[in-house]
């Protein structure tokens, strides 16, 4: 049975983190620790998908969980991987009863971990990763347990989506700044070329564009060379 007071604390903690930070590593630490507290579990681990659609281990509550999560990553088999692939929770009351995960099952037995639930992190059908929660003893994961995991997973997913959006916004801002900087150097090059050759700004720009096309060099690089390196542009 989940501890409702601890669940409320966890939700407040996630909400506060979303306001002040965009550190994914810290979020994964928070998710694991809070999940273990709320569900009175033995440990937890988080994996996220990389650019090649492979699940990569990120964080575990302790060395024992780290060890079994590394096995899951290297073999790409286990409840976390299955949860990610199916986009569905994978509650396992007894890991020993799952021969389809041989390396994972052997390591769990060595570490005295008997039960686990893999829970996907999903946004609009798109998998971002998965959360694994472990218990030392066999455990029948209840609907209440899964509901709580769903709430925590949703909060973590919202955090990841927010970080992604923020990074994209920053990349867009950087691109816009590059565009603004480029505009300045282009205008400078146009003015210098117009003044040197007694031509209009439009004609100067046309010469710069033609030089860029002839040499297959970016326009901004041509203009920067004109302004900063004294490049001379021949008449068309």
Features of the shown structure:
236 residues, 15% strand, 8 helices, alpha+beta, Arc Repressor Mutant, subunit A, elongated, 2 domains, Beta-Lactamase, five-stranded antiparallel sheet
Give the number of domains.
2
Q: Largest sheet, order of strands side by side?
A: 2-1-5-4-3
Radius of gyration, whole Å:
28 Å
Q: Approximately how much helix is present in the residues?
A: 55-70%
Tally of alpha and pi helices: 8
**Bulk shape:** elongated
Q: In this structure, how is the largest beta sheet organized?
A: 5 strands, antiparallel
Q: In the CATH classification, which architecture of the largest domain applies?
A: 2-Layer Sandwich
What is the H-and-E element order?
HHEEHHEHEEHHH
- Terminal CA distance: 80 Å
* Parts with pLDDT < 50 across at least 5 consecutive residues: none
What is the CATH topology descriptor of the largest domain?
Beta-Lactamase
Q: In what range is the share of β-strand residues? A: 5-15%
Give the helix/strand class.
Answer: alpha+beta
Number of strands: 5
Average pLDDT, to the nearest integer?
85
